[in-house]
What does this fold into?
Amino acid sequence: MLKNLKIGARVLIGSTLLLVLTIGINLPLVLSQLTTLTDHAERRHLDDLYFSLSNAIIEQGERAQALSAAVAQIPKCNKPLQKATALASPN
It folds into this structure.
């Protein structure tokens, strides 16, 4: 079958088969590596978001504690709080 073809056609067929084989082997490998790379990047980004959110929550809690301590030091705010605490306690 190949004996009837000219040399140029044989080279073209061989090159085409080699190209198809190379793409067939490399494409799954590259796609696998891209998937792994994407998964790692997503995980790293989600970890960064989690740590940012955790730090924001901690800072907000510290800010709330400082504000409540400051409000507790104001006499006008402290008297109604003491009355409400006295009414709420059963003793």
Observations:
- DSSP finds two helices and no strands in the chain.
- The mean pLDDT is 89.
